[in-house]
Protein 1
Amino acid sequence: MAILRPDATTTLNGVRINEYLLTKHNPNRIDMPSVSMAGKIIGVTVHNTDWITVASGTTPAEQYTRATVNNNMKDVRVHYYVDNVCAWQNLPHSLSGWHAADGSGNGNRRTIAIECIMSSAYNSTDKKSEDNCAKLAAALLKQYGLDINHLYTHTHWLNVRDGRNGTIDQLNTMYNRYKMCPAYILPHWATFKAKVQSYLKAGTSTISAPSTKQLYRVRKSWADAKSQLGAYSSLENAKKACKTGYSVFDNSGRVVYTVAEKTSTKGTKITLNNATLYAFSTAKTGTKKSGTFYLYDGQVVNGRMRITNSAANCGKTPAGNYVTGWVNQKDI
């Protein structure tokens, strides 16, 4: 039987989407991504996760969502789980995920993640899951005005992280000792890509959804409900209430207006005196650090900034290879 009750059920390119956003449902206070992808999406990343047997009335995609809510998926946070029946949406498109193992690279920070639930048997059930994944990927690419060259594998981002060079498809399928993913789709990646392309050419990414009253919420981030300054039916009133460091979000968690935090110049030389250095912008613990560093990009995220130990490293990608860590802005 079904365990979760979706907040909304829509149909996207023939795939039923059950929306159950972790930004709204987090009773166990699991760690969540906090970086906005609004206006930054460059593609769709495809993953495979293993098929699981579930009771009648529920589906594997629902159960993977439930496992995430219960903190049984470790640090994996994806936008969609899709199986042979439907998809469950876990994150709004405006929020980055944790799925590409590339830290603050483009995989995590700028692509929508789909976990396609399959097995090595590659039976009719697996093929239906894959077909739903292809339909969903095509619809998302079309929604953001992207073509088939913006379809990525998990392995692509691992190869980019490791400094390898090649075409998009070479990096999509090139061997990486850390992980070959999507494991069950990669052996026929060209065929899967052609299927996505066929769905891109046919039909539209039309979303049919029930009408709901639009409220514009003013928060620091969609996940930080406690920071909310108010909820307004008028977008103009929400903009007026918005302060530096806050954004206006619609019902789906998409950023529609923001007042950015002040930034500093990339490459600025700074001196730290026993300041805490964090692994990422939302880390709760870190290590003490002193010395001379440089602002990696000058951007402020969650009150913190990225630093590097050499002026020559500023702005270089992949960021994971050059960023030393995050420090609180007030410590700079």
Protein 2
Amino acid sequence: MSQIQKLYDYHVWANQQIFQHLKNVPAVSLNQETESVFPSVNAVLLHMCQADYFWLKTLYGETYEHIIPSLSQFKELHGDHDAIEHKMTALYEEYGKFLTGLEDTESSISISHPHYGTLHTTYADIIRHVVNHGTYHRGNISAMLHQMGHKGVPTDYIYFLYKKSKG
């Protein structure tokens, strides 16, 4: 298994830890407004789902201008925790197919953004970004849960490594 696949597997594991943990939190809390970067836990999860979708489409070579309008499909998921989890699970499968079919994760990709211009990078760097983005927002969720009086769940990379070492 490549290091990038392992890193992406961590991303999946950590998100699954969050979704599993949230099953123990009252459903009303998932849409409860908080003083944070996002108005609710479900809003963070929806953003993460949209971002993972955006970057998967980018990895497949779609343009920013083509992807942005397709994000409207996510409106129907707003506030629906189970639907967000279902969409994320489908995205994990798509990423898995993409990574399995990719011969060299260090091969080049160019992406264009209307404001930032063109970036010449690698597939691996995009995956690293997806994982880092997810880590940041899992931290948002943990902080929001604590603000509402609930506990978070550990999703640090080291816990993933311990879990993998035990089979």
Protein 3
Amino acid sequence: MLQFLGGKPVVPFVIDELFLWLILVGFLAQMVDGALGMAYGVISTSAMLLMGIPPALASANVHAAEVFTTAASGTSHAIARNVDWNVFWRLALFGSAGAVIGAFLISHADTSFIRPFIAAYLLLMGVIVIWKGLRPRGSAPKIGRVRILGFAGGMADAIGGGGWGPVVTSNLIARGGEPSRMVGTVNLAEFVVTVSASLAFLVALGPTFGKAALALLIGGVVAAPIAAWAARRVPRQTLTVIVGVAICLVSAYNLWRALV
């Protein structure tokens, strides 16, 4: 497993069953993320935990794959002038700080102890996704406490392997942010946060970015253009609720397995 994940010595590259399953996971996660603008990390990490991959290694590989997907997404939003740079810098800086701390915390945590907490966190993320799909649209008059939100989102994302989008984007929009600009800002900031988390995992765990990250990346790259096409044709609210329910079911099962 460590060799598969990129740990220790170089081994001959073999396309095995786990590699193919993770390509499918990356494909499905990117399809959802392309349509909703969130949940790539939550879906990928939940599936990897289901496959028995330790939480720290799952998060490290998911973040390694996300470096490329967030770079493409964030650049696209920047070119489209869909970024609030004042909010971006606060999110990126404090989100990165939280991500680095979170990466070191999970890297040195006991796997058997931390696994049920990660499963519970991902279950909560599923509930947030459902809530986001069901709640009526509304906004508050002012965006505030961006630094605290970025720090908390970055730490939770690194520890749980996902959740930056559901936590940060939904909060900024609820506080009065214009939806399209907040999505673009959070996506670009996520690239900086993801790079920071990946570097922290590299220092804490060594070269853990192996075939798992490559498989997720391949699936995500293949899905990206399809997701962009489907995003305009799939009912967003219905898909959001369906994805949230799926995340809750997988996370509940992971939680049950971790406790029994």
